[in-house]
């Protein structure tokens, strides 16, 4: 009798064989260790600091409209590679384990979670909203938390954030989002996949503050370091004179 052929699962990141002891067969233990390696961060803005601190100097000088930010790691390999696979190759099944890892970092979840919306045409192209998938997975293990995915409305015809520098991102989001309905909670968590300059979550937090929300947390998979934020390349003016 022929024995069935067992094909080992390979890591989506490094391509090595995944140990059978892993709770999932998506990436290996080595790559997961890199994702979960914790560094010293400001608990307010999520950026790396030399010593563990609740509030860094920049947040003391200019406090953001939220209180706490929770993230797995910086937007660098291996998480940056996974998120690009999820977005560009529509591998949404890679999200749930990441969301569960993020949930493990949050000792006291907010009683309400809201998500960052997408334009309807972007949603149709991708087929899912990353922040909604993350929020639904967190909500599974947090039954006392209410998930509201329609608090905000995103307007069409605004430039994509990744094409803009930090100052332009702040101006852009002023026209990109509005409050669709008033939440009935004083403590809310905003769910996003990656926080880059913080322009989007800042504006959404300000909208919540305007209607009386007292405490706001940010839950995200990655925080982009300041030294990794690139300005868009300037357009070269071509000489049209003959």
TrEMBL record:
Pfam families in the record: Pribosyltran
InterPro entries attached to this UniProt entry: ComF/GntX_DNA_util-trans (IPR051910), PRTase-like (IPR029057), PRTase_dom (IPR000836)
All copies of domain Phosphoribosyltransferase, residue ranges: 159-228
Family: Belongs to the ComF/GntX family.
Record protein name field: DNA utilization protein GntX
């Amino acid at each position: 009798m022929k024995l069935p052929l067992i094909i080992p699962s390979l890591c989506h990141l490094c391509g090595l064989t995944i140990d059978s002891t892993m709770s999932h067969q998506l990436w290996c233990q080595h790559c997961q260790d890199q994702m979960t390696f914790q560094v010293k961060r400001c608990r307010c803005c999520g950026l790396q600091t030399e010593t563990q601190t609740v509030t860094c100097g920049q947040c003391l000088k200019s406090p953001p409209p939220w209180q706490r930010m929770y993230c797995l790691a910086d937007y660098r390999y291996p998480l940056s590679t996974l998120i690009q696979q999820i977005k560009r190759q529509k591998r949404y099944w890679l999200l749930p384990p990441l969301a569960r890892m993020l949930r493990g970092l949050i000792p006291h979840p907010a009683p309400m979670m809201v998500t960052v919306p997408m334009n309807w045409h972007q949603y149709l192209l991708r087929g899912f909203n990353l922040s909604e998938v993350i929020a639904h997975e967190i909500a599974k293990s947090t039954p006392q938390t209410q998930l509201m995915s329609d608090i905000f409305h995103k307007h069409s015809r605004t430039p994509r954030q990744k094409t803009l520098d930090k100052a332009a991102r702040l101006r852009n989001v002023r026209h990109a989002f509005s409050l669709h309905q008033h939440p009935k909670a004083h403590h809310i968590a905003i769910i996003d996949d990656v926080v880059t300059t913080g322009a989007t979550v800042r504006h959404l937090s300000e909208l919540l503050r305007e209607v009386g929300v007292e405490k706001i947390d940010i839950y995200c998979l990655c925080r982009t370091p300041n030294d990794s934020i690139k300005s868009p390349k300037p357009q070269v003016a071509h000489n049209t004179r003959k």
